Amino acid sequence: MEALVDPVRRMVVSQLARKGEGMSCGTFEAPVSISTLTHHFNVLREAGVIRQHYVGVTKMNTLRADEMEERFPGLLSAVIAASASETGSGVG
Description:
Helix 1 (about 5-20) packs across helix 4. Helices cover about 50% and strands about 15% of the residues. The protein is α+β, with helices and mostly antiparallel strands. A 3-stranded antiparallel sheet has the order 1-3-2. The longest helix is centred in the N-terminal third of the chain and has 13 residues, at about 5-20.
């Protein structure tokens, strides 16, 4: 759960949840550099929040929503709601 403390990581999780499918690393909107975003992807992957895999030469990120919901019921929806309220737009 510590992986979800950071607002950038919550933003990544929210974008994945909203998209509902895998997203390549370069398609995320984030207020940090690419190298910093890579660090955030690594933290989320190591915590089991996302899954990363390659499609050709593109690294894709997928939210492990089912596994997260099973292990921590309601957590992802709370994270997404928190991210939406942080941005003030409802679109984390």
